[in-house]
Design brief:
Helices cover 39% and strands 18% of the residues. The chain has 272 residues and is of the alpha/beta class. α3 packs parallel to α4 (104-113).
Length: 272
């Protein structure tokens, strides 16, 4: 299922900038992700997961999206794609429908049932009305038939990323715990919970994954931004979780933050 002849990488496209993905938004993404107003450090733009089993198509998509300032991860099977989408935060998933093992729509339904709401663009050679309806009903945000022109793919990616950013939840909750991501405030049963910057990031990550197991590897990678799994970092994580648990749960009959011994942590209501 090849891409159309107009689908190329950044090396063979016009350098005028007219087709640059999120050209108006790239600086905003850089500053927002750096976390410092006016920061000049340039970091990657939207994070995109491409789930595609045909290597030539996956490479073309990856090269083209990287050239457009995206941070791209790839998966060659449905199982790998489901694992990555379930354990890492992405701004967009580009999902091929016909995958070895688990079908793309099966993966999509499982992600939606798990509560993962990031935008999903389904790619497929099946373009009947019934196929499109089935894909959208399964939870797809958009549906693009192969072969396709790369500029159209980019336009759809731009639209989905903008929509996803607009739809992002700014307030999260578990039981009587409320986290305001915009104001960066936390309350429990209506009382303010004072947290450090790191404790807030840790709590927000746990709440985003409420009811699911969060491993130390996930926290090291996504909260501490470290990939080197060392014992000292494990100790640091344990200390921060212990402090966070004290601030959040102390004085309340219902515990929310739980340790899964030897594996990681979860946040949920009650001990069950």
């Amino acid at each position: 299922m090849p891409l159309s002849s107009s689908a190329g990488t950044g090396a063979d496209r016009d350098d005028s900038g007219a087709r640059h993905l999120l050209s108006d938004d790239a600086l905003e993404w850089s500053v927002r992700r750096a976390g410092v107003p006016g920061a000049s450090e340039i970091v990657q733009g939207p994070s995109v997961l491409v789930v595609e089993d045909e290597q030539n198509v996956a490479k073309a998509l990856r090269d083209g999206l990287v050239a457009e300032c995206c941070d791209v991860s790839t998966a060659g099977t449905g199982e790998e794609g489901f694992f990555l989408a379930s354990t890492r935060p992405f701004d967009l998933v580009v999902l091929d429908r016909m995958l070895p093992g688990r079908d793309g729509l099966e993966i999509l339904r499982a992600l939606r049932q798990k509560g993962i709401l990031c935008p999903v663009l389904v790619l497929t050679a099946r373009d009947s009305v019934e196929d499109r309806v089935e894909g959208l009903d399964a939870g797809a945000d958009d549906y693009l038939a192969k072969p396709f022109a790369f500029p159209e793919l980019l336009a759809r990616v731009r639209a989905l990323v903008r929509r996803g950013r607009g739809d992002q939840l700014t307030r999260l909750a578990v039981a009587d715990l409320a986290v305001d991501l915009t104001e960066r405030t936390v309350t429990r049963a209506g009382s303010v919970v004072e947290l450090t910057v790191r404790e807030f990031e840790l709590l927000a990550y746990l709440v985003r994954h409420k009811g699911s197991l969060v491993s130390r590897e996930m926290l090291a990678r996504d909260v501490w931004k470290e990939t080197d799994r060392s014992t000292p970092l494990d100790n640091v994580i344990e200390v921060h979780v212990a402090r966070l648990r004290k601030r959040v749960d102390q004085g309340h009959a219902v515990r929310l933050i739980h340790t899964v011994r030897g594996v990681g942590y979860t946040i949920r209501e009650g001990d069950g």
